[in-house]
Structure formats: structure tokens, C-alpha cells
Fold these 2 entries.
Entry 1:
Amino acid sequence: MVCQARCSEINRGTWQFSLEASDGELVLEATDEEVGDLNRLTLLAAVRGLESIEGASRVTLLSTNRYMIRSLSDSLPRWRSNNFVWEHFGRRIDVQHADLWRRVDRALSIHRVEACLVSSKLVSTDSPVAAATARTIQTDRGTSNLRFDAGHAGPNRPASSAASKSGSKDQLRQWLLGTAAAPESQTARRRFTAADLRAS
């Protein structure tokens, strides 16, 4: 399950979740516009996604929202034991988004959920090298198009008939679900888990 949210204003935006089977087939996708900050909208996507699954299931939850993933692993057990309230300057108040966290907690008692923080960083920008590799080519109509030369593709690998017959070739999904077949030369390596992806 992939959960994401985007804010169009400070307190308004859209949430979205998509549920896929382990073979990559899309099961359900939903999106809507709501009032709330980015954290609340992402939580709403997770709640709606988890509540839409019929029966107990194994779920790998992917999100780019650090607040949600960290809270699921670090804060939720403490909030649960304190009935989702905490002390703030001598007063006991609800934790932020307590209504949604209660629903998440209920869903976690039904499903076995593994949460993964997906993060990415821009490691290259528009550079003079990229501009230098761009060149203009002529088409049949005499107009010119801008084309970037492709990077090195690496050695050709023969396609195995078993791999070509399998439904899903999404390596990330297979890796996260622990079903990726390791090459013979790498069988001695330790298998990474979702815990390895969590930010410390």
C-alpha cells in the first residue's frame, strides 16, 4: 500500500492511497480532497487504505512521510498505553491527530503491517555537462528536436524464460516483500528488511 498526500494550501490538500497485490496487480486506488496539514492527510490515506482491506492481511505500507513512519514505530506504543493523551504544561491533552491514530491502532490489531519510509534526494541538477551532451537532430520533416544521449546501459543480460513468464518484474516490490530471488553470487549476503530503511 502506497500512501501519499499533497497540500494545495496550508490547511487543505489531497490524500491518496493505492493497494496492490504482491504480484503488482492494482486492487484499489482512492483519492480525495480534505482539510488538514500534510501529516494529517497522509495519516488519512493510511487509515482509509487499511480500513478498505477486507479480512486480516499482510501489508507493506510505503510512504515518504517521516512523521507517520516514525510515529508508527516509536510513538504509537506509548500513545496507546496512555490512551492517546499526553501531558502538556500540566494539562492532559490528546496527541496530535488522536482521532486518526486510534483508527490506525485499531487497523494494526487486524492487519500485520510493515511500514517503510521511502526517501529520495536530488543528486544531480542541470549542468553544463548535460547541456553539452544534448544535441540537435534532424527529423524526416526537416524540423529539429532536442535529444539527450542515453547513459551506459551496462552489459546485456540474457532474459530467462522463467522471468519473462512471471507476472511482476517490479524489483522494488519483490525486494520489499522478501520474494526477490538472490543471484548465486550474493546468497551469502544478509537480506535487508524494512527496518533497514527506517531513518534513525
Note: The longest strand covers residues 26-35.
Entry 2:
Amino acid sequence: MKVFNHEKKVLTEFEALNNDLREAANNAQFYSNIMMPTLGTLSYVNYALTAAAGGFLVIAGRMDIGGLAAFLQYSRTFNQSLAQISQQTNTLLSAMAGAERIFNILAESPEIDQGQVTLDRSDAKEWYWVNGKNRVPVVGNIKLENINFSYVDNNPILKNIDVWAEPGLKVAFVGATGAGKTTITNLINRFYEINSGQITFDGINVRDIKKDDLRKTISIVLQDTHLFTGSIADNIRYGRLNATDDEVIKAAKLAKAHGFIKRLPHGYQTELTGDGEGLSQGQRQLLAIARAAVANPKVLILDEATSSIDSHTEALISKGMDQLMYGRTSFVIAHRLSTIRNADVIMVMDHGQIIERGNHDSLMEKHGTYYKLYTGQIELD
């Protein structure tokens, strides 16, 4: 807003929304508060009119006193029911509004999954892609060929992307915000479907692999870490629910989280609440990395995974990160170029295209965009 000098426009829009909200709130309060007195008054008027009419009929000899008393009692009972209904009006209207949102969610179309290839993990050491009688070992060879993608028609995000990765290869993406780095990893997971081109996993088109099975082979560590209410061990075990305590501890050691966990009052059984309140951002990030490690994935995606960690903590976990990525296909998205110096391939992206690729040394020799980024001549937005 400040960059584009839109403060006044945004304030005007906010005031309009605020006025609409105030008017709606006033109307809601007015109608809800006036309903009870109105119905109460009507019930008393109704009772009085009924008593007067009944008294006239009694005097005229067309009704006895007992019948009048019973009728007045029925009238009061009926009025009380109406009053109780009016008391529930606000609750009913709120429930209807909530139900509308729920029904909108229920009306959403489910993900289309026409994949037939499944994952066999019965052997802990060797996984297989299974398609009928064909069994292909899960290795982690990822290939993106001539990928084009757009979230909105006629607004391409990725253009002619070609990426190849294999186990033990660390592929890094750098570029300004909106360049398409995260989008590439989302396409590998099939969070979105490509417009054209092909993505293969061990030579199998990812569209032929069941989404749930595909995602079981991939672990993602994001910039924002979400922890659940429960013990630290359970939060790490969320990466693989059947992991043993020894495997949880091993993953924590790999992520360099074991040290601070042992210093907590109850170690791995320390209860976390409020999304990990009481832990630093760096410690929460270490738990997210341990969660990825315990899943033992074939493909690892680190999306700004160390952006919330200070330089000291980053140096502490760099060795553990290298151990975690060892033998796995790894994709790294980073703003800190120091974290990807040892990447085997660095992809420099700009407006949905790969404009440079190579390792750190070769890109520095070219004196191109990466060189300018690394030397601070230009900055990532």
C-alpha cells in the first residue's frame, strides 16, 4: 500500500466495509432485541382480549367459568412457546449461516485422481511402484519436461520448464517472490495439474500414480511450522505414525534437535500447546525437519526451511541437513544464497522461466544474475 501510494484508497474501502458492518450489526441487534418485547406485549394483549371476550360469553351464558379458565391457560401456554422460539431466533440464524458455509464445502468437487500405479512399502528398505504385475523400484528420479502452467487462464506462471533430478542430487531454486519456485514443487506433488508438458517419477507419469501414494514418497519442510497439541515425540512421529521411539530419537539427532529436547523438563514427553508456544522459532523448525527425517522419504522438498532460523542455528543444522539429504532427491528453495552454495544444480528463475543453471562456481564465473544476487548488486524481492 505504501509503495503504490494506496493508503487513502484502502482507508476509503475499509470505511465503507466498516459502515456496512456497523449497519448490519445495528439491524441485527435492533430486530433481535425488539422481538421479545413485541411478542410479550402481543401475548398480554391476546390474553386480555381473550379474557374480555370469554367474560362476555360467560355473562351471556354461552360459556362456563371452567371453560374460560382452561382456554386462558391454553392461550398462555401457546404464548410461552412463541416466546421461547423468539429467544432461539439468533441461534437459529447463526446456525443457518454456519450451515450455508458447511454446505458450500460439501458441494466442492473432490480431487480427480485417475492414477492406477500404487506404492508398495511392505519392504522397509525397498519400495516399489506397482502397476498390475509390473513392479518398478522407487528410486527418486524426477524429470520435468517442457512444463507450462497457469493458475488463471492466459496468465502463465511457468514457461517451458525443464528440470531433472536423481537420488543424491541437490537441486536449488532461487529467484524473486512470484518467480514460480514453490509452484514447481507443488506440481511435483500434484497439488495442481500442469497445462502442458510431462512430469515423471522413476519414468512413470505422475498422473498415472495415485496421489496419496505419490505424496507418501515426498516430505516437505515449509517456512511456517505447525505443531499440534501433544508431546514432542508425537509431533515428530506425525511424519510417520508407526515410527518407534528409537526412530523418533534418531530423526531428532539427525535434525540436531535432540540436544534442546533433552534439556526440556520432560524430554520427548514434554507437552506442546498453542502451536508450540514456549519454543523458539528455530526450535520449532528443527522439529519440522525431524518430522521430515522420520518419514524417510525418497524425495525431500525444503521450501525456505531455514529462513526463520538464525545464523548460529543454521550453522548447527547444516550438517544434519546434509545427512538428511544424503542419498535422496532434494529440492531446495532459499532466499539465503549461503544455504545453497553446495547445491549440485542451482536454477535461477525469473518470471516463470529458468534463466540460468549450474553450480555455484560456474554461475559465479558467468557474472550473470546469480553473480549479481550473490554479490549484492541486486536483491531478491
Note: The longest strand covers residues 142-149.
